[in-house]
Amino acid sequence: MPKVYVAGKIQDNGIELLKRKGFKVDLNLTDKDLTREELKDIFSKYDAVITMPTDNVDSDLLSSASKNLKVIANYAVGYDNIDERAAKKSDIVVCNTPGVANEAVAEHTFAMIFALNKQLKVADRFVREGNFKQWDPNAFLSHQLWGQTIGIIGLGRIGTFVGQIAFGGFKMHILYFDIARSEDFELLCEAEYTDMRSVLSLSDIVTLHVPLTTDTRGMISTEELKLMKKTALLINTSRGPVIDEKALIWALKEKEIAGAGLDVYEHEPEVSAELIKMSNVILTPHTASATIETRERMSELVAQNIIDVFEGREPVGLVN
């Protein structure tokens, strides 16, 4: 009976699927991330491990793996926490959960846009502090989204969904930059493909949807922020290190941009105290994909990835 260890709390449907297929499943029932030593011990004993995106699975950790360890199934779309090349050298399959969080992350992106654009954080505090004495026609004025320009950097599945919401819901003008052009997207959303500098300089809202790679790490820094409109908003629901946070804090303090919405952070889970103090910044704890529907699909897919490997099929989420 193959043994699977689940390194964090996942929805029950995936666990039950594994059990029905004859796997022995052990769980981390705490609310804490596993320590490095705990992970090493687990990797030396199990045939498959479901890892969390907070687990740093590097070559050193992989060197402790049992020869029986066949698959690491990451409970995330991203997999930058795993050295998939080192895993491949050890004949360990790495999988992720692609395509399950598109709608949820796109929704979260717009939740941040709404909150910033309508100044909901400040307006909510204004009411709670007892300052609402009479209606003021000039209080908390904002521009409507209808007809504004949104710039999408990274046109994967999530970026495409964001574009569809922007165009279909608000008739926003769409600029986008990606390593590959999509004529289908351009036709569907009347979008314009252009370079990143133009996306940054011409957009009222810039939203990031890129994976973390050597090319994207720090891709938004001082020079890029200076290109943006002083009235622009920056949204990041992708990976924290794609933004240089010191540069972002500078840009917000100097009013180089109007606001930012961040679901991910450069040194996650550490969040800058300066960002926390800012009223024109919306912060969420890496929960863009946190819907019940998404988590259930993720749980099922990590389980199915493991089952496919053990039954000799190529898993949907194959990374390496």
Provide an overview of this structure.
The protein has 320 residues and is an alpha/beta fold. The protein has two domains: 3-98 and 292-310, 3-Layer(aba) Sandwich (Rossmann fold); 102-283, Rossmann fold. The protein is 37% helix and 14% strand. The protein has helices at 12-20, 36-43, 59-62, 84-89, 102-117, 120-128, 157-170, 183-189, 196-202, 222-227, 245-253, 273-277, 292-310; strands at 3-6, 24-27, 48-51, 71-74, 93-95, 149-153, 173-177, 192-193, 205-208, 233-236, 259-262, 281-283. Strands 8-7-6-9-10-11-12 form a seven-stranded parallel β-sheet, sandwiched between helices. Strands 2-1-3-4-5 form a five-stranded parallel β-sheet. Helix 1 (12-20) links the parallel strand 1 (3-6) and strand 2. Helix 1 runs parallel beside helix 13 (292-310). The longest helix has 19 residues, at 292-310. It starts with a strand and ends in a 10-residue tail after the last helix.
